[in-house]
């Protein structure tokens, strides 16, 4: 029987879509061939994982066989890891040991990354450096006008992050200068701010947690970082579970899956139950339909709907501050959080109800009027945040048209704001139903 043209086209389309879902295998690319060869020389056994490009997450790892619960995903020998031990046995080790006051483990690793990147073809770690990102999308790398489009609590943290990296750079300049004997050119040109920002982002976004014993040549900050070539190509998903740890017997860092994964699918790991604001701040990406995501309500937004003439307003604010009820007030997929409702209940107490503030913090119902007013104010805040988010999304779409160079960064903030909008609209729906019920 002759196949119809329509059926053949449909089949081709399905196949095309399938290749998109599965990802495009990239293991034939020269940088990955060199990386695998280099890792093999350090004792890494070839696994079932292949580098691939995925339409939704970009670069990641796919499996060439179906994975079952409790299967070993990857085992990376200690020799492949970059730790402070690696740094001390490199050319900068003796300078770190001599330097007083001692540098932090973080600065030691940043220094190593800058030195090895600068060494280029002469670096023993070149195959790894060739696959590291050239740029990052953490807030510290975003342009000022893009940072201004972030939700207020995240904007504040992004500004703090920038200040931290700037301070780290300024306080390390003298140490960087001490490395001059290692270089023909001036250390100021090698260890510039951009180089440190890149190294800091590499560590912040890509290290695995691995506790090391305290060394005298380092400051007292915890030494818990390890860079893991190849393993760090695994992307995060909030919907999977894994077990990850350094195995003292095999002297390897191992990841075991607690979820199933079909053949040719992307293999995910989970960084923890992080919301999108934290993922963007620490890792420079946003997870779509993240079950842990929340929209944060700032104290300024909270107070917008309460009369400044309320005589007990200052006392109420003082109580909320003392009992840590002005932070982490959120809307989630299941509506307003208990903390947000409790803070609003306390602010909604009438003059005759104020004496019962302790009961409010314990979750007791004070009066029908207080419950109703709390719901009304919560709904108003939710609608205010919806409007604010929609306004920002409009700004982003206008900027995307006029600022070609910021397109990628704007798309990231847009993804965050779109997730926020979904959460707020779901919360508005829940509040509407609650209002109808009462």
Explain how this protein is built.
The protein is mainly alpha-helical and 438 residues long. Among the domains are: 82-227, set domain protein methyltransferase, domain 1 (Alpha-Beta Complex), CATH 3.90.1410; 294-437, set domain protein methyltransferase, domain 2 (Alpha-Beta Complex). It contains 17 helices and 13 strands. It has helices at residues 5-22, 30-41, 84-88, 93-98, 105-119, 126-129, 144-147, 152-177, 187-190, 193-206, 276-283, 299-303, 313-322, 338-347, 357-361, 368-402, 407-437; strands at 24-25, 49-54, 58-63, 72-77, 207-209, 225-227, 235-236, 242-247, 252-257, 268-269, 295-296, 330-332, 335-336. The strands form 5 sheets. The protein has a 3-stranded antiparallel beta sheet. The model is unreliable at 1-5 and 13-20 (pLDDT under 50). Its EC number is 2.1.1.364. GO terms for molecular function: histone H3K4 monomethyltransferase activity. InterPro entries: Rubisco_LSMT_subst-bd (IPR015353), Rubisco_LSMT_subst-bd_sf (IPR036464), SET_dom (IPR001214), SET_dom_sf (IPR046341), SET_MeTrfase (IPR016852), SETD3_SETD6_MTase (IPR050600), SETD4_SET (IPR044429). Belongs to the class V-like SAM-binding methyltransferase superfamily. SETD4 family. Residues 42-272 form the SET domain.
């Amino acid at each position: 029987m002759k196949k119809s043209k329509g059926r053949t086209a449909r089949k081709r389309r399905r196949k095309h879509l399938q290749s998109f879902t599965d990802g495009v295998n990239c293991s034939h690319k020269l940088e990955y061939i060199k990386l695998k060869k280099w890792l093999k020389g350090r004792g890494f056994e070839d696994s079932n994982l292949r580098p691939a490009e995925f339409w939704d997450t970009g670069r990641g790892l796919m499996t060439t066989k179906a994975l079952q619960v409790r299967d070993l995903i990857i085992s990376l020998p200690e020799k492949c890891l970059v730790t402070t031990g690696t740094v001390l046995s490199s050319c900068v080790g003796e300078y770190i040991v001599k330097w007083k006051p001692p540098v932090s483990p973080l600065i030691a690793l940043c220094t190593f990354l800058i030195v090895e990147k600068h060494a280029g073809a002469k670096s023993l770690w070149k195959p790894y450096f060739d696959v590291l990102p050239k740029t990052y999308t953490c807030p510290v790398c975003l342009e000022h006008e893009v940072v201004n489009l972030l939700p207020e609590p995240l904007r504040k943290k992004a500004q703090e992050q920038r200040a931290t990296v700037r301070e780290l750079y300024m306080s390390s300049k003298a140490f960087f200068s001490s490395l001059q004997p290692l270089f023909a050119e001036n250390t100021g040109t090698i260890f510039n701010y951009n180089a440190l920002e890149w190294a800091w982002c590499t560590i912040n976004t890509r290290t695995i947690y691995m506790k090391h014993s305290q060394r005298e040549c380092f400051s007292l900050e915890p030494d818990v970082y390890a860079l893991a070539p190849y393993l760090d190509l695994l992307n995060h998903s909030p919907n999977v579970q894994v077990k990850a740890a350094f195995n003292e017997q095999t002297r390897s860092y191992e990841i075991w899956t607690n979820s199933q994964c079909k053949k040719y699918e992307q293999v995910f790991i989970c960084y923890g139950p992080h919301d999108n604001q934290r993922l963007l701040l620490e890792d420079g990406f946003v997870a779509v339909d993240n079950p842990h995501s929340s929209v944060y309500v700032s104290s300024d937004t909270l107070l917008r709907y309460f009369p400044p003439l309320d005589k007990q307003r200052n006392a109420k604010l003082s109580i909320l501050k003392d009992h840590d009820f002005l932070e982490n007030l959120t809307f989630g997929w299941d509506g307003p959080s208990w903390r947000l409702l409790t803070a609003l209940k306390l602010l909604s107490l009438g003059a005759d109800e104020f004496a019962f503030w302790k009961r409010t913090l314990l979750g007791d119902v004070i009066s029908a009027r207080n419950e109703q007013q709390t719901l009304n104010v919560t709904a108003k805040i939710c609608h205010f945040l919806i409007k604010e988010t929609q306004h920002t999304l409009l700004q982003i779409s206008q900027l995307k048209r006029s600022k070609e160079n910021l397109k990628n960064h704007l798309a990231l903030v847009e993804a965050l704001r779109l997730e926020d909008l979904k959460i707020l609209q779901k919360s508005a729906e829940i509040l509407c139903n609650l209002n109808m019920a009462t």
